[in-house]
Design brief:
By secondary structure, the protein is an alpha+beta fold. The protein has two domains: 2-204, Cytochrome Bc1 Complex, Chain A, domain 1; 229-418, 2-Layer Sandwich (Cytochrome Bc1 Complex, Chain A, domain 1), CATH 3.30.830.10. Helix content is 44%, strand content 18%. It contains 16 helices and eleven strands. It has helices at 43-50, 61-69, 95-108, 113-131, 134-147, 160-165, 168-178, 194-204, 255-266, 272-279, 311-325, 333-350, 354-368, 374-382, 386-397, 414-418, and strands at residues 2-5, 11-16, 22-29, 74-79, 84-91, 184-190, 229-233, 239-246, 284-293, 298-306, 404-409. α9 packs across α15 (386-397) and α12 (333-350) runs antiparallel to α14. The longest helix has 19 residues, at 113-131. The relative contact order is 0.16.
Length: 423
């Protein structure tokens, strides 16, 4: 891995992968939904769509997609809470096309008002899709419960009123404030040397030096009598729920301990949640424990789709696993060893893809101003002890009053589920 900061402040990170003939060019910008307020809630995601709608050289969506399709490449974009990303993946001999298309859209996007008006319909339908798909929506409901009415607790897709109102001037202003050289990282991963990649970045991304106008507000923990259950009553054939606690930030010393704890709890088909909730009792079709990692806080939670007639039992069994894992001596060395092997193995498999490798490097560089290599991550995982995992499990799950839950299903009384959040 190599890194160069250009004179305009743009950071360039490269990694040559000998095992592939492909190259991914990824542009990551600190312009996610945490940078929004109520007046522009959803603009980060809407802007992501608009970058593909025409610029200086590639004048419309057809030209953009045609350029990538003509070389058999892949391209996409994504918007998170803390950043937005844009990438093109091509055969290494076609890498100029990736740079050309990405730089044109990032530097010269026109945000044509006619295209904005057309795209509103697309995004509103995306909004409706999430509302009609509880499996997706439940995660956003849970984050709103945990983080409340602040940007970290809002859906990335934003508010309908904003989607229906924003115009050309809003996009231009937002881009000028955040899509600056100091707030952008270009990562090139795959079959290309650093010097060659750097030369192409300097050629195609000749950005003026700039500084982002503001940073997002730091997370403010909820105080007072915040609710413990977020219930959305909806006629469904399956109840969808999330149960968990506030955890650690991505920079916390126990970040990798937390990751291993999530694997032990519900990270795979031999995990505790899978075996004791799905296999032993047939309560869920899908069940998994994940972490959500941000620069100043985080979550660990279990998400499941369960039998609507036995939802209460499912909650009891999930909560039971949390209570058990918090007890001293509950986790054994073999269980931890398997979790380590699983986490490292999954990372190795994902990093065979230049796109995944680029995302890993870009995220660390953008958010933490320092790249963490896979080897360094492996060492962090290997260094976790059984005592570390027991300590973190006790810290997070030792007090059941910290548990909170979101559920979507044909129910009307949240107190029914709140009474179950104890051990």
């Amino acid at each position: 891995m190599k890194k160069t900061t250009l004179s305009n402040g743009l950071r360039v990170v490269t990694h040559k992968l000998e095992s592939t003939k492909a190259v991914t060019v990824l542009v990551l910008v600190g312009a996610g939904s945490r940078y929004e307020n109520k007046e522009i809630s959803g603009i980060s995601h809407f802007l992501e769509h608009m970058f593909f709608k025409g610029a200086e050289k590639y004048k419309d969506a057809k030209a953009v997609s045609g350029a990538i399709d003509s070389v058999g490449g892949d391209f996409n974009a994504f918007t998170g809470k803390e950043y937005a990303g844009y990438y093109v993946k091509v055969a290494s001999e076609k890498v100029d096309t990736a740079f050309d298309v990405l730089s044109d859209m990032m530097l010269h996007a026109r945000f044509d008002q006619h295209e904005i008006d057309k795209e509103r319909g697309v995004i509103l339908e995306e909004y409706n899709m999430y509302q009609d798909t509880p499996m997706y929506q439940i995660g956003w409901n849970y984050e709103n419960l945990m983080f409340g009415d602040q940007p970290l607790g809002w859906d990335e897709i934003g508010e309908k009123e904003v989607i229906e109102r924003v115009n050309h001037e809003d996009f231009v202003e937002y881009k000028e404030k955040l899509y600056t050289s100091d707030n952008t990282v270009v990562v090139v991963a795959g079959n290309i040397a650093h010097d060659e990649a750097l030369e192409k970045v300097e050629k195609f991304f000749a950005m003026e030096r700039g500084e982002k106008a503001y940073d997002f507000e730091k997370y403010s923990p909820l105080i007072g009598d915040a609710p413990r259950v977020h219930l959305k009553e909806k006629k469904t054939e399956q109840a969808h729920l999330v149960i968990g606690v506030e955890a650690y930030s991505e920079t916390h010393p126990d970040h990798w301990v937390l990751k291993l704890l999530s694997v032990i709890l519900g990270g795979n088909m031999s995990s505790r949640m899978f075996l004791n909730v799905r296999e032993a009792h047939g309560l869920a079709y899908y069940i998994r424990t994940n972490t959500d990692d941000y620069v100043d806080t985080g979550l660990i939670s279990t998400t499941a789709g369960v039998d609507i007639k036995r939802a209460e039992m499912a909650v009891e069994k999930i909560v039971e696993q949390y209570g058990m894992i918090a007890k001293a001596g509950e986790i054994d060395a073999d269980e931890l060893a398997k979790a380590k092997s699983f986490l490292k193995g999954k990372m190795i498999l994902s990093l065979e893809d230049s796109e995944e490798y680029a995302h890993l490097l870009a995220k660390f560089e953008l958010l933490h101003k320092d790249v963490m290599t896979p080897d360094e991550i492996m060492r962090e995982i290997n260094a976790v002890s059984l005592a570390d995992v027991e300590r973190v499990a006790a810290d997070l799950f030792g007090d059941s009053s910290r548990l909170k839950m979101a559920i979507i299903g044909p129910y009307s009384d949240p107190k029914v589920f709140e009474r179950l959040l104890k051990y």
